[in-house]
Amino acid sequence: MKTSIAITLTASTLFTLVTPASAAVVDFGYEASRLPDIDNDKLAELAVLVPDIGFNDLGTASIAALSGDTGAPLWTADIGDYRRMEFVPMDLLHDLDEDHHKDLLVANSYTDEVFLLSARSGDELAAWSSPAGAPTRFGHTIAALHQDLDDDGVPEFAVAATGAPHYAGSGVVYIFSGVLEGGLLTTIPGPEGSGFGFAIEPTYTDYDADGVDEILVSAIGQTHVVGGQIYRGSVYIINPATGATIDRIDNTDDQDLHANNILFGYTLQRTGDLDRNGVDDFIVGAPNVQGTLGTSSISVISGETGDEMCRYDSTIDFDGFGSGLAAKWRFDPLAIDHGTVDVVVGAPDEDTFGRVYALRIVGDPAGTCTVTPTFDELGAVAGSYAGNRVALYNRNINIAYQDEVEWLSPSSLLHSGFVVSQFEDSVPGGAIGSVRYYDSDGVLEKTFVYTP
């Protein structure tokens, strides 16, 4: 069901949304995603989570499509009951309603549901529930795949239920057919207590040469013993058609030894081929989000060997660095022996303010890489938890954006910016929840602020 939201336009680039919510909506912006241009102004729109939270952090939630130009709401769609800070991931899927716009895949891990919404209207096109019943945290993670596994001409998508079976924490990844009438194709269970499926990232590498590119799946609770020492966190390379494990990359960094608060695999991001060996590499986020000692970090992993190519550590303990992660390939026609990727990393718990870092990662044919900050970290309002989510956001639709495989287009890479969630502000009189849009130079262009 769609509802209306009034818009109040303030000075400069600050936009205030006003809605008849009965309680403070502190999670506005907790999740956000790019949308195609649906109002024909040549600018991409933004999909944002809009909760209505009441007693005991419970309530309902909707998704709002906001104009990329004015911030005005274009449509809203209810997604049911909601509990504060539950995962509501969003991803653009292919155009199933044939309106010439990709549709929006939205999950509600609190209600164990996944919805496909029309990007143009917000109408519900399809819905899926947990094959294992509820509660399983079905929809904790979703990922649109680029491959058609069942020969119906439409690519599929993956959904993780990290609490399956029934919050036991083992985790299951499901591969669903991408057509509206399609069903479950593959069920991939994880090891007991591993949190399997916490993050999913498609690759463009066919590791087992069967014609199907594999997916990366993290298991933040996976434990393993090396040399008598216990380490935690793994990333699996999985065949989505068969569910077979092709390889497993384990966290074996001594800095993380016995640090149960370090969540290796909390985020995953494909980078492209940094060392030019023909296989895409990837980044693993390992934030410390528990408030105890331990170094948050991101690690760049070789897609060919599984070895760590380089690592970037936060300088502040338990700041959550790596909780939000997005990357774009940087086109350089002169660099034929290495690749470069620009990365945006969120640290939502840094000094209770939250920070966002922009890093440049340059590969080397020897299989290593270097990480360099590209501009000063972006601050936030105290108590805002800025950087809990970060996402690429290219407003100009005339620059061919688009999904990961198309980032290699030189026309798209120099123009895309990013959005940062700033979903809570505990300062008296401060705004509650916002989404900030930065251009590719880190300049704040717009702030969308929700006022209950």
Describe the structure.
It comes from Nannocystis exedens. The protein has one domain (75-438): Methylamine Dehydrogenase, Chain H. Helices cover 1% and strands 44% of the residues. The protein contains one helix and 30 strands. The strands form seven sheets. The protein has a six-stranded mixed β-sheet, with no helix packed on it. It has a four-stranded antiparallel β-sheet with strand order 3-4-5-6, with no helix packed on it. The protein has a four-stranded antiparallel β-sheet with strand order 7-8-9-10, with no helix packed on it. The protein starts with 5 loop residues before the first strand and ends with a strand.
- Distance N to C terminus: 20 Å
Return the domain count: 1
Helix residue percentage: under 10%
Q: How would you write the strand order of the largest sheet?
A: 1-2-30-29-28-27
The major pleated sheet works out as: 6 strands, mixed
Low-confidence stretches: 1-25, 399-415, 426-430
Looking at the structure, the CATH topology is Methylamine Dehydrogenase, Chain H
Helix/strand/pairing category: mainly beta
Q: Report the β-strand fraction as a percent range.
A: 35-45%
Number of strands: 30
Q: Which CATH-level-2 architecture?
A: 7 Propeller
State mean pLDDT (0 to 100 scale).
81
The CATH class: Mainly Beta
Give the radius of gyration. 20 Å
How many DSSP H or I helices? 1
Spatial shape: globular
GO cellular component, one term: integrin complex
Protein name: Repeat domain-containing protein
Keywords: Glycoprotein, Membrane, Signal, Transmembrane, Transmembrane helix
Membrane topology: Single-pass membrane protein
